[in-house]
Amino acid sequence: MIIYNETIIVDESIYKEWLNWIQNVHIPAVMATGYFDSYRILNVIDSPNEGVTYCIQYQASSLNNYNEFNSKHQQLLQATHQQRFENRFVMFNTLMQTVD
Length: 100
Prior knowledge:
This protein is of the alpha+beta class. It is built from two helices and four strands. It is globular and about 35 Å long.
């Protein structure tokens, strides 16, 4: 299984607004692409960073599914996120594979 992880550090002043938007707009848009089977949102409770840190993990059944998502949808979805919350978050992505 492939896990696409987005780690986002959000300004504390907007984290509730951001979380609401992520849950009701962004994640439904990502899932509507059809390339991921499930997702989960995690709050990093021991983050050394200022702000509130979240991880969103999307699970894909194959690397091909992730690659298709990346080539067709990721840029627009990230641009929308950036435009909406410009200069109020930092994000980095990680691609992982489960080990059996």
